[in-house]
């Protein structure tokens, strides 16, 4: 189980796949306020002087909205990284797979992560599982993540809330501490 105590070193905020292309998905989604929660956490991290990692999916499929050179691959304007913040590009769901993320974190002495973004059962869950398996204390902010309606393996339609809740249940207690945006801000109120 991954647990996160009060930090003795900076905690990194990982924002996953908050690109313009995700806004083009026409399926119903949950957590309509997730982007505002993410913006709140990003500003809190900047105020603390802690590291932000902006993770961008770059598809290998030329017809994807996340293909290089298309507006869908760009970050959403309100969640745009600042010039000094780390931008990591990934080609698969897991931000640690085939990337320099683990090394980047270790070089900076970062052992604790807070994860937000999209999609709850996809890149968020995959990244959180690997983070925990690599020994990072991992928090996932449930109201700063979201997903879309999906059909389950048996062919049953599931709402975005159901898909999201199952993803959070998969992570809770085994791979991450699943928390609210408010609790993260309160926990890390004045750590700098």
From TrEMBL:
Gene3D superfamilies: Isochorismatase-like. Keywords: Hydrolase. Residues 12-180 form the Isochorismatase-like domain. InterPro entries: Isochorismatase-like_dom (IPR000868), Isochorismatase-like_hydrls (IPR050272), Isochorismatase-like_sf (IPR036380). GO terms for molecular function: hydrolase activity. Pfam families: Isochorismatase. The keyword Hydrolase applies. PANTHER family: ISOCHORISMATASE HYDROLASE, PEROXYUREIDOACRYLATE/UREIDOACRYLATE AMIDOHYDROLASE-RELATED. This is Nicotinamidase-related amidase. It comes from Pseudomonas segetis.
């Amino acid at each position: 189980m991954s647990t996160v105590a009060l930090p003795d070193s900076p905690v990194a905020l990982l924002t996953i796949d908050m690109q313009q292309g995700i806004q083009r998905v026409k399926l119903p989604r949950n957590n309509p306020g997730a982007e505002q929660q993410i913006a709140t956490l990003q500003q809190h991290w900047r105020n603390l002087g802690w590291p932000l990692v902006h993770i961008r999916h770059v598809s290998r499929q030329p017809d994807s909205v996340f293909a290089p050179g298309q507006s869908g691959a760009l970050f959403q304007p309100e969640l745009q990284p600042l010039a000094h913040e780390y931008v990591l590009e990934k080609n698969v769901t897991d931000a640690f797979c085939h990337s320099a993320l683990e090394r980047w974190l270790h070089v900076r002495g970062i052992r604790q992560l807070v994860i937000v973004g999209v999609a709850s059962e996809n890149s968020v869950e995959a990244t959180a599982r690997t983070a925990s398996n690599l020994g990072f204390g991992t928090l996932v902010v449930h109201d700063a993540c979201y997903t879309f309606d999906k059909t389950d393996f048996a062919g049953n339609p599931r709402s975005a809330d159901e898909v999201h809740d199952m993803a959070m249940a998969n992570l809770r207690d085994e791979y991450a501490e699943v928390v609210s945006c408010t609790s993260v801000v309160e926990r890390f109120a004045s750590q700098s």
